[in-house]
Specification:
Layout lengths: L1 E3 L3 H12 L5 E3 L8 H4 L3 E2 L7 H21 L1 H11 L11 E5 L2 H16 L4 E4 L1 H8 L6 E5 L3 E2 L2 H15 L2 E3 L6 E5 L2 E5 L4 E4 L2 E3 L11 H7 L3 E11 L12 E4 L6 E4 L4 E7 L12 H10 L10 E9 L6 E6 L2 E5 L6 H6 L1 H8 L12 E2 L10 H18 L4
Flavin-adenine dinucleotide binds next to helix 1, helix 2, strand 13, strand 17 and helix 10.
Length: 400
């Protein structure tokens, strides 16, 4: 079997296949974790962002509930996998806080907390005082805590996943951009500019990756979602600073959201919307510095030790997509800014799919033909206009 893309999705699928004794090759255009997986915020957050009722409405009772149950356990699955393979990635289970700084956000958070608590999730609603104590910041008015969440060093985690897959028997080739995918008898030939893999089944797990001269099929996948940049900065805390006790991961309810956490070296890692391109210099991180000053004024002028960005693939309804691209060949897009837990856990069902289990029996969205979003050529403008509109709506609700 051949997997294209060495992020959480591709490597977890390869790991599960290799553990079952299947011969599997992973082809990666850059290095392991070169896409979103290596650049991520490291927040392990359970499930999809949709309300239970939305998933049931989108997929019906049977699959809707299967996806909900799968999402409810995906953070456990991720931390279990890390422990089972001894992956050294600063895994920490300090919970996930979703916090709000507007009345509308607090009400929305309470609605979410109730919806998940009704399904048995370990959730606590936080008062304003509890929120302030949990963050060490007065910037938010309320929120809720999901005890299933936690954090990892995202690059160490994806590299460890790669090592586990290789140890289990997978072959992983980096600097191997796939250029073509062609039918070959009952199987497929997946070709880079220097080599070819003959295989029976293929999974494209290329997410938001665009490469010049890439396989037209991958380019077509790129047209099925938007790609937005998210930037992060890391600030070493001064000795004695006690913000974020217990080191939970935090994101807020804004439409253009802010997310932050402490890493294992006690750096405040804070992220949010980037520009419409890769960051070039320190001035590109003005928004992240502003977030830091708003949330933690005492750190407003603190030295930044690291700054970076990554591209997030976003489908218009923020639901995953599974595309059937030919007999025995599939492509999966499942980023939407929240892929550590979900994409890791999806490795097992994707391995099942590649081994012939019908998709209808798995916790996977139904496979369709790749469907580019309308006016896909205007994707950059969609993103710019969408961001402005969402920020305006946040401001209208009182977000500073
Ligand atoms: C800045 C940022 C912060 C984030 N924060 C969080 C967070 O805190 N928590 C969370 O859960 N999620 C977060 N995410 C989202 C999460 O990182 C993604 O959902 C996840 O990494 C997607 O995994 P993937 O394996 O599907 O795709 P990717 O990791 O993007 O992997 C796709 C791979 O395919 C390769 N590829 C593309 N084209 C080709 C080709 N033609 N040939 C060969 N290889 C190819 C790419 O190089 C890439 O390595 C964040 C993302 C970003 C960018």
């Amino acid at each position: 079997m051949c997997i294209v893309g060495a992020g959480y999705t591709g490597l977890s699928t390869a790991l599960h296949l290799a553990e079952r004794g299947v011969a599997v090759v992973v082809l990666e255009a850059g290095a392991i974790g070169a896409g979103g997986s290596g650049a991520s915020g490291g927040q392990v957050i359970p499930g999809l962002r949709h309300f239970p009722t939305e998933l049931v409405r989108a997929y019906g009772e049977d699959l809707g509930h299967r996806l909900l149950a799968f999402g409810a356990g995906d953070a456990d699955t991720t931390f279990d996998l890390i422990a089972r393979h001894g992956i050294d990635c600063a895994a920490h289970r300090g919970g996930w806080l979703q916090v709000a700084d507007t009345d509308a956000g607090v009400a929305e958070g309470e609605r979410r907390a109730r919806a998940w608590a009704e399904r048995g999730a370990p959730i606590d609603v936080l008062t304003r005082d509890q929120t302030v104590a949990a963050l060490g910041s007065t910037a938010y008015r309320g929120g809720w805590r999901d005890r299933r969440g936690g954090s990892v060093n995202p690059l160490a985690y994806v590299r460890g996943l790669g090592r586990a897959a290789i140890t289990a028997g997978a072959q992983v080739f980096t600097n191997s951009a796939v250029r073509t995918l062609t039918r070959d008898g009952a199987g497929w030939v997946v070709a880079t500019s220097t080599g070819r893999v003959r295989c029976q089944r293929v999974l494209l797990a290329t997410n938001a990756g665009t490469l010049p001269g890439v396989a037209p099929l991958v380019e077509r996948l790129n047209q099925c979602q938007l790609a937005v940049w998210s930037y992060q900065i890391a600030t070493p805390l001064p000795p004695g600073d006690t913000i974020l006790p217990g080191a939970p991961v935090v994101s807020d309810t804004r439409r253009v959201l802010r997310y932050f956490r402490l890493d294992a070296a006690r750096r405040l890692v804070i992220g949010g919307k980037g520009l419409g391109r890769a960051p070039k210099d320190v001035s590109d991180f003005a928004l992240q510095r502003h977030m830091r000053a708003t949330l933690y004024p005492s750190l407003a002028e603190a030295e930044i030790s690291h700054a970076w960005g990554g591209r997030i693939g976003i489908t218009l309804d923020r639901l995953p997509r599974l595309f059937a691209v030919g007999e025995g060949a599939w492509a999966i897009l499942q980023d939407n800014g929240k892929g550590i837990a979900w994409n890791t856990a999806s490795g097992a069902p994707l391995a099942d799919l590649l081994q012939g289990v019908p998709a209808e029996r798995l916790p996977l969205v139904p496979a369709t033909a790749p469907a580019p979003i309308p006016f896909a050529w205007a994707r950059r403008w969609y993103v710019a206009a969408g961001n402005s509109w969402l920020r305006l709506r946040d401001r209208m609700e009182g977000a500073r």
